[in-house]
Design a protein that fits this description.
Layout lengths: L1 H26 L6 E2 L5 E2 L4 E5 L6 E6 L2 E4 L4 E3 L5 E11 L2 E12 L4 E2 L8 E9 L5 E8 L6 E8 L5 E9 L2 E9 L5 E9 L2 E9 L5 E7 L6 E7 L2 E8 L6 E8 L4 E7 L6 E9 L2 E8 L10 E7 L5 E8 L16 E4 L5 E5 L2 E5 L5 E6 L16 E3 L2 E5 L3 E6 L4 E6 L3 E8 L3 E13 L6 E13 L4 E2 L2
C-alpha cells in the first residue's frame, strides 16, 4: 500500500517537474514587440520607436533593408516622403523573432526655423517683412523641466538662411509680442510678460544687424499691450490695464527708438473695453475691442468699436452682439482680433467666431460665423487678413478660410501639422507663420511629450502650397 502511494506521488512529482520545465522553455522564447505613435507623419518629424519585446538579449532595428540601430529603442527623423518599413529582430541564445510594420511619410511643405527640441518647445509670436527683403520672426521657447522662459529674434534672408539670432532668458510667462522696423532700419520688439497676476512689457530696440541698442520696461500696463500702429514719428500701442473684470483702455505712445512720449488711460462708466486692434481714420483712431463681463454672469461678451479723436479722447462707441454656438466660449484673451478698412470706407471686423461688415458709420451690414466643424479652435491671427481683389483670407488654429466681401466662403484649407499664428502678404502669395506640432521622448518621462517648432509655409491665393 505504501509502495503504491509512493509510486503515484513520484509520478505526479515527475509530471509537475516536466510541466514546469515546459513552462520555463516557453517563457524563454523571445518575442519581438515595438510601438510608435499613430500618424500622420511628415518629413522632419521625430518618430520614437519604443521596444516592448520580451525575453530578448539583443536587438537589431532595420529600416528599408538597412541596419540602423542595435539599441533597445530608437528615434527616426525622415527627411524624404514615401513608404518606410521598420523591422525589429530580437534574439535570445539560439532563438530569434522578428516584427515588421509599415508607415507612410508625407512631404512637409514648410520650412522649420527652430530645431531646438527635444530640449525645449517653441511658440512663434510675430513675423514682419523687412525693407531689405528678409524676414524677422519673434518666438518664445521653454524647457518643460524648467520654470524659465526664453524670448528670441531670428532674422532670415531671402534664401531662408539665418543671418543672426538673439535670445534672452526670462523667469516669467511670456505671451503676445510685436515687431516693427523704422525708417532707419532699426527694429523695435515688445514682449509681454505675465508675473504674479500682472504684466510688464519689455521694449527692445536693435539695429538691422542684431545689435541691442536700447532696453526698457513698461510696468504700469497690468494686462499687456495687444496691438500697435505707426502714426508718423510715433508708435501707438493699445492694450488694457486694471484688475480682472475692471479694465481701462491703455494707450502707450513711443518714438521709433522706443522712448516713451505719452501714456493714456480711458475709463468707461458702464462697461469695460479691452483693446485688441487700432487703426487710423479721417476722424482720428478706430479701436476694436471686446466688452468684458463678470465671471459668473450669463451675459455673453460683446464686440465694441470705439472712435477716438486726434487727441485720443472718446468720440463715440458702438456695441455688437456675438452670435452663434461659440459666442459663450469667447473671452478675448488669446484671440487676436483684426479690423481693416475697405476702399469705400466700410470696415471688416474679425472677432472669432464672428466676421462682420460695417458701413463707415459703424452700422452692421452683415454678420456671419465661421469655424471648423470638428473642434473649437482659438481664433483669428494678428494681421491675418489679406485683401485679394474683393476677397479676404483669414485663419483659425489649423484652418484657413477665404471669403468674399459678402461673407461667402470661397475655399477652406487645413494646415495639418500645427497652428496658424500669422499671415504675411507677399506679391503673389502669402507666408504663414506656424506653430508646428511634433513629438519627442526623454529619459525623464514615460512616453512622449508634444513639442512645438517655429516654421513657415508659403501658399498662393488659391490655397495651394508653394515650395521654398
Amino acid at each position: 500500500m505504501n509502495r503504491s502511494i509512493f509510486f503515484i506521488g513520484t509520478v505526479f512529482l515527475c509530471l509537475f517537474i516536466s510541466c514546469k520545465d515546459d513552462d520555463q522553455t516557453e517563457k524563454t522564447e523571445p518575442e519581438a514587440c515595438f510601438d510608435f505613435r499613430s500618424g500622420p507623419y511628415y518629413t522632419g518629424d521625430s518618430i520614437q520607436f519604443t521596444n516592448c519585446s520580451s525575453n530578448a538579449e539583443s536587438y537589431q532595428w532595420n529600416l528599408n533593408g538597412g541596419l540602423i540601430s542595435d539599441k533597445i529603442d530608437f528615434t527616426f527623423t525622415p527627411n524624404n516622403p514615401g513608404e518606410y518599413r521598420v523591422k525589429l529582430s530580437v534574439e535570445n541564445k539560439d532563438e530569434e523573432d522578428t516584427l515588421s510594420q509599415v508607415f507612410e511619410v508625407e512631404d512637409y511643405n514648410g520650412f522649420v526655423l527652430d530645431k531646438s527640441y527635444p530640449k525645449q518647445s517653441a511658440s512663434p509670436k510675430s513675423i514682419i517683412k523687412m525693407a531689405d527683403g528678409s524676414y524677422l520672426v519673434s518666438y518664445v521657447s521653454f524647457n518643460v523641466f524648467e520654470p524659465s522662459r526664453y524670448y528670441h529674434l531670428l532674422k532670415i534672408n531671402g534664401s531662408f538662411d539665418v543671418e543672426w539670432e538673439w535670445s534672452r532668458r526670462y523667469g516669467a510667462n511670456l505671451y503676445g509680442s510685436t515687431l516693427f522696423e523704422n525708417d532707419n532700419g532699426d527694429i523695435q520688439f515688445t514682449q509681454n510678460n505675465w508675473i504674479s497676476g500682472f504684466s510688464e512689457t519689455l521694449v527692445e530696440t536693435f539695429t538691422a544687424t542684431g545689435q541691442n541698442i536700447n532696453s526698457r520696461t513698461i510696468t504700469n500696463n497690468e494686462n499687456g499691450l495687444i496691438d500697435y500702429m505707426i502714426d508718423g514719428d510715433s508708435i501707438i500701442y493699445v492694450g488694457y490695464s486694471g484688475p480682472r473684470y475692471d479694465y481701462d483702455l491703455f494707450i502707450h505712445i513711443t518714438d521709433h527708438q522706443g522712448s516713451a512720449l505719452d501714456t493714456k488711460l480711458i475709463s468707461f462708466d458702464e462697461k469695460v473695453l479691452v483693446g485688441k486692434s487700432i487703426r487710423k481714420n479721417s476722424d482720428g483712431y478706430l479701436l476694436l475691442g471686446w466688452s468684458n463681463i463678470e465671471a459668473l454672469s450669463d451675459e455673453k461678451p460683446k464686440i465694441n468699436l470705439l472712435q477716438l479723436d486726434h487727441s485720443l479722447s472718446k468720440s463715440w462707441e458702438m456695441t455688437y452682439n456675438i452670435e452663434g454656438t461659440d459666442a459663450d466660449r469667447l473671452n478675448g484673451f488669446d484671440d487676436k482680433w483684426n479690423l481693416i478698412s475697405n476702399e469705400d470706407n466700410s470696415m471688416m471686423i474679425f472677432a472669432y467666431p464672428t466676421v462682420m461688415k460695417l458701413d463707415q458709420e459703424g452700422n452692421k451690414i452683415w454678420s456671419k460665423n465661421y469655424r471648423p466643424t470638428e473642434e473649437f479652435l482659438q481664433g483669428l491671427v494678428d494681421g491675418g487678413v489679406i485683401k485679394v481683389g474683393s476677397e479676404f483670407i483669414f485663419g483659425y488654429d489649423n484652418v484657413l478660410i477665404k471669403i468674399d466681401q459678402e461673407g461667402n466662403e470661397k475655399w477652406r484649407k487645413e494646415i495639418p501639422t500645427g497652428t496658424v499664428v500669422q499671415l504675411l502678404q507677399e506679391t503673389d502669395h502669402f507666408v504663414i507663420l506656424e506653430n508646428r506640432k511634433s513629438y519627442y521622448s526623454s529619459e525623464d518621462i514615460d512616453g512622449e511629450l508634444t513639442a512645438y517648432q517655429v516654421s513657415l509655409i508659403k501658399m498662393d491665393f488659391d490655397g495651394n502650397y508653394l515650395d521654398f
